[in-house]
Amino acid sequence: MLIERSIAVATHGRYLVLPPEVSGPAPILAGFHGYAEDAQMQLARMRGLPGSERCLIVSIQGLHSFYNRRTNEVVASWMTKQNREEAIADNIAYVKTCLDAVAAEWQTAAVAVFAGFSQGVAMAFRAAAHFRNSVAGLITAGGDVPPELTSDVLKTIPRVVLGRGSGDALYSDEQFNKDELRLRESGVNVHTLQFSGGHEWPTDFGDPLGWLLA
After folding, report:
1. Are 202 and 158 in contact (CB under 8 A)?
2. Which domains does the chain have, with CATH numbers?
3. I need a labelling partner for 58 at 20 to 30 A (CA). Which of 2, 30, 102, 166 fits?
4. What is the 3-state secondary structure (H, E, C) of 6-63?
5. Residue 132 in this model has a pLDDT that exceeds 90
6. Does the global pTM surpass 0.85?
7. Whole-Å CA distances, 116 to 21, 69, 80
């Protein structure tokens, strides 16, 4: 009879930090990339947001690395359906450790904005739900709200910018509308952004940081 077990082991993760262009404590802008991407890609997205130069930008890479078959570049994933619950717990602990290390090394304000694309959207929500300081809100595109987060947990997130490309086949319009309704019913202030495009980060997100950090 085949018996399956899971076991916890220590591993190393990778994160990128871009210090603010202003002096003094800065809010954290923490980002989470999509499937088969890396931390550099999400960092570039966040750098394109107006006002990001006033933030301490932290882009965290998923723990599960692999080679992109087309480019041979190292990319990563956050999880698969296998050992999903364990992976969620591991990722939450990993992100917390990263942000604690950042706060120990740089001057940070006790407030953060979380940003995620595609598979990284769920991680952004989970990270915000477990952040030990104040959460200003989330900036998301191309991914749904994780199903395990209850209304009581979601209501601790004050504001969310929820984005979707009109031609996104991976994040349907139906799911987008369900996520908006679910967040609003949880008491979250939601700003929706429907843009022309597919499964992508919009070229013009407007000024979400200005709204979230006001």
Report:
1. no
2. 15-212 (3.40.50.1820)
3. 166
4. CCCCCCCCCEEEECCCCCCCEEEEEEECCCCECHHHHHHHHHCCCCHHHCEEEEECCC
5. no
6. yes
7. 23, 24, 17
